[in-house]
Amino acid sequence: MYSLARPFLFCLDAEKAHDLGLAALEAAYRTGLNPLLASRPAPLPTRVFGIDFPNPVGLAAGLDKNAAHIDALAALGFGFIEVGTVTPRPQPGNPKPRMFRLPEHEAVINRLGFNNGGVDALLRNVEKAKFSGVLGINIGKNKDTPNERAVDDYLYCLDRVYARASYVTVNISSPNTQGLRDLQEEEALKRFLGRVRERQELLAAEHGKRTPMLLKIAPDLREEEMDAIAEVVLAAGMDGLICTNTTVARDAVVGDRHAGEAGGLSGRPVFTRSTAVLRGMAQRLGGKLPLVGVGGILDGSDAVAKIAAGASLVQCYTGLVYRGPALAGACVEALRTAERRA
Q1: Is residue 174's pLDDT more than 90?
Q2: If we measure between CA atoms, which residue out of 55, 101, 58, 108 comes closest to residue 296?
Q3: What positions carry a catalytic annotation?
Q4: Orientation angle between helical segments 186-207 and 150-161, nearest 10 degrees
Q5: How many Cα atoms occupy the beta-carbon half-sphere of 160 within 13 Å?
Q6: Which of 169, 220, 301, 341 reaches 20 to 30 Å from 229, CA-CA?
Q7: Domain count, the chain
Q8: DSSP characters for 148-174?
Q9: Which residue in 328, 167, 315 sits closest to 243, CA to CA?
Q10: The domain that contains 153 carries what CATH number?
Q11: Please, are residues 228 and 139 in contact by the beta-carbon 8 Å criterion?
Q12: pLDDT at residue 181 tops 90
């Protein structure tokens, strides 16, 4: 069915198509027609971060920033859903247009800029959802919060989402909030993670449960930066890493009419770069920290490659734009086949 709808959606502005696609998924779910879009795969249980996942294929943050479509998205067969990125206060994001498709490269460039309704609005939507599965909540900072006070925004969000999240993702790797990636620098990262980890332990005692906390990193890291991040996250006691966010590199899309657009590039062109970072972090961490592989998964073989590179879980986003709602199930089945052959 998606193959019929895709040409129409691709005639629209990318962000309008994004919003219309979510509305269509929601309508299908509410009318009971969602099985026509995708069928739930048989379970492929995976235990990571002390959490039992029905399967290791999740939805990456960014698609459902305000947690407004959790139930509809979960019905597509994902083993877990990650919502956000959410900030303390609502913000509109960057000026439009701010999302661009590159069909020849099966890619998207976005510079959305953490557009969302704020953490309180997200939590109201989470409360309304019927979903009882694994829910990740991705947190960030408001655009107008300077980096020297960025940690305050993350602590504010962490306090509020802690009780409702299965895990929390700390996003300091989006290229669309000016200066955000500077927080990945070694000394800044040490100070930053020290503060959020301290708050995590206080919240664990307060709520009587320990909610895992993951760090999402960029694909545009040099070898020495990866060395430093590995040392810092291990010393800080983080629960896992998500490898990776979008890339600012354009070498894979040279010549495309949108190649010069500012923002993060996702989809097929980021696969090699993000998988190299995933593999590099896996080698540095030596199994001491679970990894989530995301970036350029457009079919089941891509998911298998991420697991082979060291991931315990994988996530999709841009692949849904090009492959449609059946992608989650296809990835699960490919992983099941690879597991049987191993």
Answers
A1: no
A2: 108
A3: 174
A4: 30
A5: 22
A6: 301
A7: 1
A8: GGHHHHHHHHHHHHTTT-SEEEEE---
A9: 315
A10: 3.20.20.70
A11: no
A12: no
